[in-house]
Amino acid sequence: MGAALPNPALCLVTDRRVCPPDELPGRVAAAITGGVDIVQLRDKEEPGGALLELAIALREVTRASAILLVNERADVAAASGADGVQLGETAMPTASVRPILPDGSVIGRSVHSVAGATEAQASGADFLLVGTMFATRSHPGEEPSGPGLLERIRVAGVGAPLLAIGGITADNVAQVVHAGADGAAVITAILASADPEREAARIKSAMHNAMAAIGEHREPGSRYTTSRR
Q: What range does the domain containing 110 cover?
């Protein structure tokens, strides 16, 4: 298993349709200053070499300040010095990916159902990315599951950290926290913002406020640390 995640965790997922690769390091740096703890590099269009270059650039931006995950590509994650990978529901099994990565790497798994969440936890994933919460421009036409999915996953006994994804903003993130999320993953609200730092800070503050309202107490020292930074 990888190291513990920040709690609450704010993850920024990259999308070239929202922010082109050449502008990404600067926007990511601003978002981290605002409170982003995790950056997931997700770009299925870049060939391996270009993706590695982008991952290395983001590693420099995130070093000692945020967790860097690469979507699906364990080889790129290992070569760039990233902290781990984010795997889809139909990607390689977690147990097959972990030996490819350095010890202590973080492996997240995307899930869209209670069964998927239960299976992902059993497979040894460090956290689950649960969606889709709300309607989103990145997945037009997709019927959102809503925060109720988080509640059903918790009722089913899944104790792994849950990050909600899909249309998350500062105005609705409290809903997913109240439903059982330990954090949120955001694309458009931060990447498309004229001020990524400010927007990240708004979302992070809203998460803290929501957790305080329901009496959540976070253990000191729960933040992620790694000697590989």
A: 9-213
